[in-house]
Amino acid sequence: MKTEMIAVYVIVAALVIVPYIAIIVFGSGKGKKINKDFKNEVKSHALNISKKESWNRHVIGVDKEKQQLIFTQHGEDSTVNTQIIDLNKVLAIDIFQKRNVVKENNKRNEFLDSLGLDFLMEHKERQTLRFYDTRVDVAQNYEMEHAEKWRELLLDLKRSKDALKNTAAA
Question: What is the pLDDT of residue 167?
Answer without folding.
Answer: 57
